[in-house]
Every structure is written in structure tokens, then in C-alpha cells.
Amino acid sequence: MEIIFVRHGESIGNALKGDEAVYTGRWDCDLTEKGRKQAKALLGNPLFDGIEACYVSPLKRAVQTAEIITNLEPVIDDRIQERSLGEFESKKISNVMNSPEYAKYFTDPEFMTFRSSFKAHAPGGESYSDVCKRVRPFLQDIKDSGYKKNTHCITFCFYTVHDKGTPVAFGRRNTGA
Hints:
Layout: E1 2-7, H1 12-15, H2 33-40, E2 53-56, H3 60-69, E3 75-76, H4 93-97, H5 104-107, H6 128-143, E4 151-156, E5 162-163, E6 166-167, E7 169-174
Parallel strand pairs: 1-4, 2-3, 2-4
Antiparallel strand pairs: 1-7, 5-6
């Protein structure tokens, strides 16, 4: 079985920089014009030939990316949505960092790794271990799906691999099916 992973194009949340930068997480925001162009850059990529199914997170940025790169009706699955950043989502990073309520997330070594840890998480959010626990059953369902051509396009929100600002299909995984 072949699975193709694609990250969504730039979203409104991703585009905010400097003092305006926010923790995006599951904040459900649209693609920017740049994000639409990034997705369009994948059109015609032979990697997408023969796709039988397109699974996406319910977030607008994932659905919009999928609708640009394939003619298939996206299958929305909550299990593959962005890692939750809980109380931090859609808040300005500078406001969160300067809030006494959240000081330990920026001063205490046990909590400071919430952005990249398999253990730590933002308040009310998920660690990467939590994400793995919900994504594994999804991947097993894909493996068990029985598609004859065994090719899928999955638009994940929680991967951040880029090639010079363009989202790329960055993995082919042989699942042994």
C-alpha cells in the first residue's frame, strides 16, 4: 500500500508573523492566497496519479488544500487533525508568553518543551504521544481499507515539512499491504 502525506498550504494563522504571530493548533482558518498557490504547485505531480481516496482533517486549510490537488471528494476524519494546543490556540504568542497564568510553559523545563514533546503539552492540549494514539488507528483503518490500487492522498495538518515554502508530498510508506 502506498500512502502520500501532504501538508496543507499556508493558512491565515501560519502567515501571521512577529507581534501578530499566533499559536495555530486547531484554529480553523482558511488558506491564504500564497497557500492556494502552494497547493496549486502540486497539480500535475505524478505522485498523485491513481489516487483512490483523499483523507483530510476537518480543518478548512486541509480541506481547501485537498480540493485543489485532487478531484476526489475529501473524506474528513477527525483523527488526523492538527495537534491541539488547547488554551493557546488562536492566541498571540507574545500574549501567552507574557501571561503570568502561563509562565511555567516558558520557564519550567518540565513544561517548556510543550511545542515539541511527546510528554509535555499546552494546557488543555495534546502531546505528540497523544497525537500518535489517535493517528495509529486511522492508519490501521487505511491499511485495512482494501483499495485495489492502494494509493491514498492524506492531507495532514500536523506535519510541518516544507521545501522552500512549498508544501511537498514528503513520504511514501509501504505498509506491507
